[in-house]
Every structure is written in structure tokens, then in C-alpha cells.
């Protein structure tokens, strides 16, 4: 199995990026997914979650109204649309998957992890 993130890069404050996470080795439709980020000096934190059905979502307070998680099971891909980016959104972003609708952003609940993609928000 493998999760591969892409779409990171350097963007100015107020800009947008769309991260993708391509899953191989298992069928994404049976897994809940999450996005996490490692922020320098703060450790890894949960950003967003989506249930297996796609109906239930969770967002960290810091990204509510700016980030949107989505999934395309036919493409075995998870997305994170990030708008109105701020310097404090800088970090390495990881996608993760779990074979349960855990309904939270606890790292220990997730079984599969990608290697991460760097997002830098700076002028």
C-alpha cells in the first residue's frame, strides 16, 4: 500500500493550493481519511477528516471556512482545497487513512500514512 501526497509548494498569503493524496494498494472507498500537518515548533496536528461515506467531516478550528476536504473514490484520491492561506499554515501536510469511521483527528486512530508534502505560505 502507498499514500502519495502532491500539490504542495510556495504560495503568498491569501493564496490557494489544492493537495492531492493518491492511494494505492487498497480501495479508498472503504476507508475514512484525514489530513494532518507538522508545523515547525508545534508538532503534528489534525487538519481535517472525512468519513467513509463522505457525509461526515471535521475541521480544525484554525482552518474552518478556508479548507475543504473531498474524495474521489473512483480515482482513489483524497483532496484538500486550501484557500485564504496564512503564514501559520506553513508545514508538512500528510494524508492518512483508517478502516473505521473514527470521527476524530487522533493520530493513533489512523493506520496508513503518506510521506508528506511541504506547504510554505510566505510573501
Give the topology, please.
Layout: E1 2-6, E2 9-11, E3 17-24, E4 32-39, E5 43-50, E6 57-59, E7 67-72, E8 77-82, E9 91-98, E10 112-113, E11 117-121
Parallel strand pairs: 2-11
Antiparallel strand pairs: 1-3, 3-8, 4-5, 4-9, 5-6, 7-8, 9-10, 9-11
Describe the structure in your own words:
The protein has 123 residues and is mostly beta strands. It is built from no helices and eleven strands. It has strands at residues 2-6, 9-11, 17-24, 32-39, 43-50, 57-59, 67-72, 77-82, 91-98, 112-113, 117-121. Strands 2, 4, 5, 6, 9, 10 and 11 form a seven-stranded mixed β-sheet that branches. The radius of gyration is 13 Å and the shape is globular. The protein starts with a strand and ends with a strand. The mean pLDDT is 96.
Low-pLDDT runs: none
Mean pLDDT comes to 96
Count all strands and give the number: 11
Helix content: under 10%
Give the N-to-C terminal Cα separation: 37 Å
Strand fraction band?
A: over 45%
**General shape:** globular
Number of helices: 0
How would you spell out the order of helices and strands? Answer: EEEEEEEEEEE
Structural class: mainly beta
CA radius of gyration: 13 Å
Largest sheet: 7 strands, mixed
Amino acid at each position: 500500500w502507498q499514500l502519495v501526497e502532491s500539490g504542495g509548494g510556495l504560495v503568498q498569503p491569501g493564496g490557494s493550493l489544492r493537495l492531492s493524496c493518491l492511494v494505492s494498494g487498497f480501495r479508498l472507498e472503504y476507508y475514512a481519511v484525514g489530513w494532518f500537518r507538522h508545523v515547525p515548533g508545534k508538532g503534528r496536528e489534525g487538519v481535517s477528516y472525512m468519513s467513509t461515506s463522505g457525509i461526515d467531516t471535521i475541521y480544525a478550528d484554525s482552518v474552518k471556512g478556508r479548507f475543504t476536504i473531498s474524495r474521489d473514490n473512483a480515482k482513489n484520491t483524497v483532496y484538500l482545497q486550501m484557500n485564504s492561506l496564512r503564514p501559520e499554515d506553513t508545514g508538512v501536510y500528510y494524508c492518512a487513512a483508517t478502516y473505521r469511521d473514527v470521527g476524530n483527528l487522533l493520530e493513533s486512530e489512523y493506520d496508513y500514512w503518506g510521506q508528506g508534502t511541504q506547504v510554505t505560505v510566505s510573501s
